[in-house]
Amino acid sequence: MYQRISGVIGITINMKKLFFIGTLHAGITPNKELAQILKTLKPDQLLVEIHQKDVVNNYLKNYPVEMVFALRWAKRNKIQVKGFAHHIDMLAKGKTQKDNLVVIQEQKKVIKKYFWHDFNKEKYTKLLNTKNFKPLIDQKAWKQCEEAMARNIKKYQSKKGVSVVLCGVGHLSFFEKKFKQAIFPLR
Fold first, then answer.
1. By C-alpha distance, which of 39, 19, 42, 20 is closest to 31?
2. Structure pTM?
């Protein structure tokens, strides 16, 4: 069965749908546009890149603003929300938050030439691999984090209905391989 959703075809599988939407952290994903996508997809459940314990305790201080916005949007709209993030430090040995800010500034220069949702497409996501990005990230920790997030998504995903997963665009390729039946409407 096929259903047209805002110009995107969604495939119904056993009455269960899993959508992935990639976001840009650092306050770059516009809340209004994100809300419109969520309204269009009509989720029964929203999974955000926040640790589940912090969702329960409403401790949202250190999370990307679009994830906090989406969590609050879901609660206002009486949509079940779960967090799937994992507390694994992905900074390479010797790297600091100051180094991370340098990368964010490099990425913002790239991003300003496009729309935020363009970065859901692989060819644009690669543009975020700026000069200082690769040395910033501990690749082993990155892989461990993605595996942990995938396990959490599988654990929390609704058995039926529509689940929408919001994650950083850098994780989309990994999730595409892990969740072959999922729908990536902005890809």
1. 39
2. 0.89
